[in-house]
Write a structure and sequence with these properties.
single chain; alpha/beta; Rossmann fold; 4-stranded parallel beta sheet; 8 strands; about 15% strand
């Protein structure tokens, strides 16, 4: 029997590229409930501060194209698609397009290395539900779980962290914060692996670089009225500043592309806190389409592709 034709689907949260997309995007995140005028104005101000929109969709497209090229270079050519959770192209629509293109198997990878039932699991559900709607057997789905300790991911993030440390006046005295998106305590507590995997990613980078002055911190907590996991990055900057630290490096290990949580929450908000305390903040560059990072994606995907892939 001939091997089923395979395709790869990279999945991201999604973000508006223009200010006129922000309200619809925010409404989708809120499951159809429009934001209040105050909340909308706040989000519009944040996107305005980073240039009027997010580069995330463009970066995911670059990641998609780079991964397709890397797989082809390895002799494992397969079509690679990009789909978003909260903005077009939506994951379900892309799954239907993949099936219409003749693929019979999808390897789906969320562009978030650490697994959580709150986040990555919802990506898998979106793919599986769309595939199931096509009918039994029409499209087989392999959803990649955690890849927080993938060796080339650690290599790429370590290189970016080392570059940021090298920009410090006194690298050995700088304090490094490895950050990820906060999640509600009710979800991230207990058996959910997210916080442990964030800590594991951080520990692997710190070990590789020989970093001793470092901590894990969380950022970008939602405004839901419930408790979210910490410690919060800005509070941690205040803590080390009170102990005499004058340079900090932030490595957002939970993010693999430039978007609002990096460009605003770190580069604007956290930096303002640091500068107000007389602390210099250097941020490790995002992975985006870094070649070593793309090789990490290819390693993860290649393990799930069948022995023979029809292009």
């Amino acid at each position: 029997m001939a091997e089923m034709t395979s395709a790869v689907l990279l999945m991201a949260y999604g973000a508006p590229e223009r200010l006129d997309q922000v309200e619809a995007y925010y409404t989708h995140i809120r499951r159809g409930t429009p934001p209040t005028p105050t909340l909308l104005a706040e989000l519009l101000a944040r996107y305005s501060a980073i240039g009027g929109g997010s580069p995330l969709s463009r970066i995911v497209e670059r990641q998609r194209a780079a991964l397709a090229s890397e797989l082809a270079r390895r002799g494992r050519a397969a079509p690679v698609y990009g789909g978003m959770k909260h903005i077009e192209p939506f994951i379900g629509d892309v799954v239907r397009r993949i099936a219409a293109g003749g693929a019979r198997r999808i390897v789906a990878l969320a562009l978030a290395p650490q697994h959580s039932s709150f986040n990555q699991q919802t990506y898998g559900t979106a793919v599986e539900d769309a595939a199931a709607a096509l009918g039994d057997g029409a499209l087989a789905v392999t959803v990649v779980g955690s890849w927080h300790d993938q060796p080339r991911l650690i290599e790429a993030m370590s290189a970016a962290t080392a570059e940021a440390l090298a920009r410090c006046e006194a690298p050995s005295a700088a304090h490094v914060f490895f950050t990820a998106h906060s999640l509600p305590e009710r979800i991230a507590g207990g058996t959910d692996p997210y916080a442990r995997e964030v800590a594991a990613t951080a520990a692997l980078i710190a070990e590789r670089l020989g970093i001793e002055r470092c901590d894990v911190a969380f950022q970008s907590a939602g405004r839901t009225g419930e408790r979210w996991i910490g410690p919060e990055l800005r509070d941690e900057i205040r803590r080390v500043a009170s102990a005499g630290v004058r340079e900090v490096v932030v490595c957002p290990v939970g993010f693999v592309a430039d978007h609002l949580e990096v460009l605003y929450d770190v580069d604007v908000e956290a930096r303002a806190v640091a500068e107000g305390l007389g602390v210099r903040l250097e941020r490790a560059r995002s992975m985006n389409d870094d070649p070593t990072f793309v090789a990490a994606l290819a390693d993860v995907v290649e393990q799930r592709l069948p022995a023979a892939v029809a292009s």
